[in-house]
Amino acid sequence: MRRIGFIAAALASAALVLGTAQAAEKVRLTIISGNNHNYAPVGAAIKDFVPKVDEILAKTGKYKVSWVQGFGGQIVKVRGELDGVQTGLGDLGVVPGPFHQSELSLYQIAYVTPFTTLDVQVATDAMNHLYGKYPAMGKQVERFNQSMLGITGTADFYELWTKKKITKFTDLKGMKIGAVGANIPWVTAAGATPVVIKGLATMYNALKTGIYEGGVLWQQAMAGFKFCEITKYKLAAGFGAVANALLTANTDSWPKIPREVQAAIKEATATWSAAGNQKIIGGGKWGLGVCEKKYGQETHELSAAEKKTWAFAISNIAQAWAKRQDKAGLPGTKMLGDYMDYMRDKKQLVTRNWDRE
Questions:
Q1: How many helices and strands in the chain, by DSSP H and E?
Q2: Are 159 and 179 in contact (CB under 8 A)?
Q3: Any idea what DSSP says for residue 303?
Q4: What is the three-state SS of 135-146?
Q5: Cα–Cα distance for residue pair 95/247, rounded to 1 Å
Q6: What is the pLDDT of residues 251-277, one digit of tens each?
Q7: Which of 214, 296, 304, 317 is most buried, taking the most CB atoms under 10 A from its CB?
Q8: Alpha-carbon gap, residue 40 to 279, rounded angstroms
Q9: DSSP secondary structure string for all residues of 2-65
Q10: Which of 74-78, 160-164, 167-171 has the lowest mean pLDDT?
């Protein structure tokens, strides 16, 4: 009788587990980006965000997400993320802010204040500080039928890689240098000819064929996309960290997602942001080793005086940016002052007080 009772209890337990599993409601979500896993914010979405959402939902077992991961150009191309989420191709999207200077103008503030910080986490915290203070940042994303869930780093610190060895910024005169657009003024100040980077996935061939003679990038990307195989000379200029990679949600899709799943997504966004920065920083250390050992990368670091000379060779793009935002009814001047105050309060390098000239 005891054996029968044990079997009955086991069967009842199994039925309960089976019933719980069967009760889980499937929620189909599509997350998109034109970049692949070598772009740290996408890598963090794949390796950290998606598993975290699943882990949170598993606690109750009420919902299970059926993920469609459309990365690496499967659903949208690089630079097509903002439109992709806007039109509903993705319920969620990893949107690279640097490629949307006009549409997401308020998120470009770090690009107009180079030589300010080398700490990508401080840059991210500063952007979150501004986002919490200025509703205009949220509204700017909402114009494209989506809301911002979170922000993470784009680059821990931008540097310059070239095919030929250079040791000072004036050596760049006449060279064709790839830049995302927002950082074009950094290289034009040195007399270089800027060429807009269309996307990381296509840049290798562009470097190889001479469309670019170098590029303003970061160490993790240099190794991840094997760019240092072609451009092995690194000029450590100290342009600084930028944080404007966004995780967004389609406005039409979001209300249809069960509240428990919405809550899991919001909670997992913090994991995504932290993981993105960790991947950039860790990837930078890894990338330095790869580029030096495998491709013979040579690094020349500019002195503090040379960096200052470069910083002041750039026109005051920060105040010009702020005035454009003000003219459009956006809080450009106020945001610039707050951003620079934040950096000064956090004891960042701040080579040039862009807001005080």
A1: 13, 11
A2: no
A3: P
A4: HHHHHHHHCCCE
A5: 6
A6: 999 999 999 999 999 999 999 999 999
A7: 214
A8: 6
A9: HHHHHHHHHHHHHHHHHHHHHHPEEEEEEEE-SS-TTSHHHHHIIIIIHHHHHHHHHTT-SEEE
A10: 167-171
